[in-house]
Structures are given as structure tokens and as C-alpha cells.
Design brief:
Length: about 300
């Protein structure tokens, strides 16, 4: 299982452009396999991925994730192919639906049929990224278009798939999934079996399963869980993540944070790898009263990343 890291805020303060590039360079120097940028209410993640890729030479740079609704799939494909060209083949496009409160309340768009939207979105996006052209007549998109971006070929597509139908769709047409707030039991019993079965049925290669979770190597695991409960409290209110907590049998983010000493964290990560996770995305989790938690965690994960 490859080890990656989410980059962005440092100590609760959003990083600027130079700060994000510095984080990407540092992750590459430490031996991490990948860096991932969220696309929420700050920088555009595809643009920043491209910039970070231009300032590095080896590390994979990906988005985790870019919402689909605000961007026409042709625009998404064009941006992704441009980033892939700038990254010289090291860019991975992670996309997702976002949430009803964002799409409807903030953006004023309809979130009435999320599965149908993603299915049709991929019917446009996937051919563009794989062949450079698409002909599609659907309910949401009617497209006849082509793109030619030198160096922009072979961009992987990961879908933030949580529910059964979305995992089946992802396994059928995309390169894999990227999860968040999904615990090890759910990864083992739900995520991996469903996406792997769909990929096999479609005659596709085994999919990537990128698992993102907060991790803290710390002398105070209970404090880490309290910190996660506070820092990530909003996820317990979002239906898609609430369903993952319920599957896992936990109340909220505190129940899925990986916390403890090196042996404990290492065993948890080994369990994820055994469950079928191909990549791990570390979300740094500050621990009140333990200032050494983040550097200690980074040192441990760096050791794992370097093998």
C-alpha cells in the first residue's frame, strides 16, 4: 500500500501558493508516493496540482476531490489534461458529487439525481480523457466534442464513491475510488468487494482504492479522538458520510481516527492494506497537549513510505 499525504492547512492556517508548493516538495523529499489537494473553498485544486507538479519531479499529485456539478465535463477534461501535461504524467483526477447543502444551498443547482448525474458525467468525461473525443446525447449533457492536449493523455480518474450503486459505477468505468471518513471495517466488507466485483465484471483492471483518514501517532489517543471529533464534526451531519459511520458502527469521526503509538498505527494501516486499500492518504490530525504528534506521525509514515 502506497502512502500519500493531504496538503493544505498548516496548524489551522491555510497555506498560500508558495506554502502549498513547499509542502509538495517536502512530501517528495520525504518519500511519500503522492500528495492530494482538496477542492473546497480555497484554491482550485487542479490548478494547484499542476503548479505543485511543475515544482516536483517524482511524486504523484492528485485532487481529493473536485465537485462535478459546477464544471461541465468538457471543462473538467480540458483542465485535467492540461494538468496532466504540466505534470508530465503524474496527475490524477479525483472527482465527487459534493453534498446537497453545497450544490443546492450554496450554488443553486439541483442535487435531485446524484447517481444519474455522475453516470452521465462519466459517460462524457471518460471518453474525452481516454480517447480525446466523445459523442453523447443524454438528459443532462448533449455533447459532440474533441480535445487535443499534447502530453495530457492517460489521466487516471478516481471517483469519491461511497454508496453501493456509486461503487459499482466507479468499478465499471473509472480507475478507482478515493474515500474519506470511511473506516477499516467498511473498506473491508463494503468498499473493496463492491468496486472490485464491478471492475472484474466489466473486464477492467483491479481498481485503485485510496483510503483517506486522520492519523495521529501520539501518547494520548483519546485526545486525538477528541480533536478529530471537533475538527471534523461537520462530516457527521452530511448524509453520505453519516451512512459510512453507521456502516462502521461508530458515532462519528472520533470512531474512525487512527491513533496510538507506532505499533498500533502500523497495525491499523497493515489491516487496511490487507483489506484491499492500494493507497493511504494521511490527513494530519493535531492533538491538543501533544505538540509532537504531527511530526512524530510524519516521521513514522515517512519510514513506511520509504519501505
Amino acid at each position: 500500500m502506497k502512502i500519500g499525504i493531504g496538503i493544505g492547512e498548516l496548524g489551522g492556517t491555510p497555506a498560500d501558493v508558495d506554502g502549498l508548493i513547499a509542502q509538495a516538495k517536502s512530501a517528495e523529499d520525504d518519500g511519500f508516493a503522492s500528495v492530494w489537494l482538496a477542492n473546497i473553498f480555497s484554491f482550485d485544486a487542479i490548478t494547484m496540482s499542476a503548479l505543485c507538479a511543475r515544482e516536483t519531479s517524482r511524486i504523484e499529485v492528485g485532487t481529493a476531490v473536485v465537485p462535478t456539478f459546477p464544471r461541465h465535463p468538457i471543462a473538467m477534461a480540458q483542465q485535467a489534461m492540461t494538468a496532466q501535461a504540466m505534470a508530465r504524467g503524474r496527475f490524477t483526477l479525483g472527482i465527487g458529487l459534493s453534498h446537497q447543502i453545497v450544490i443546492e444551498t450554496m450554488l443553486g443547482l439541483s442535487f435531485a439525481k446524484p447517481y444519474s448525474h455522475m453516470k452521465e458525467y462519466l459517460e462524457v468525461l471518460v471518453p474525452l480523457l481516454r480517447t480525446g473525443s466523445v459523442m453523447h446525447q443524454g438528459g443532462e449533457y448533449r455533447v459532440a466534442a474533441s480535445l487535443k492536449v499534447p502530453g495530457g493523455e492517460h489521466c487516471q480518474i478516481l471517483v469519491a464513491a461511497l454508496a453501493p450503486k456509486m461503487l459499482a459505477l466507479t468499478g465499471t468505468v473509472a480507475d478507482g475510488t478515493i474515500t474519506w471518513m470511511t473506516g477499516p471495517k467498511t473498506i473491508r466488507e463494503h468498499t473493496v468487494p463492491r468496486i472490485a466485483e464491478a471492475a472484474a465484471a466489466a473486464g477492467r483492471p483491479a481498481p485503485r482504492v485510496v483510503v483517506g483518514l486522520p492519523v495521529a501517532v501520539t501518547r494520548d489517543p483519546d485526545a486525538a479522538r477528541r480533536a478529530a471529533a471537533q475538527q471534523f464534526v461537520v462530516y457527521g451531519t452530511l448524509p453520505s458520510y453519516r451512512a459510512m459511520f453507521d456502516r462502521e458502527g461508530v458515532e462519528g469521526p472520533a470512531g474512525i481516527v487512527i491513533a496510538g503509538d507506532e505499533a498500533t498505527v502500523g497495525a491499523e494501516l497493515a489491516g487496511l492494506a490487507a483489506a484491499g486499500a492500494t493507497d493511504f492518504l494521511w490527513a494530519p490530525c493535531p492533538v491538543e497537549g501533544d505538540a509532537d504528534a504531527i511530526p512524530r506521525t510524519r516521521a513514522f509514515l515517512t519510514k513506511l513510505a520509504r519501505g
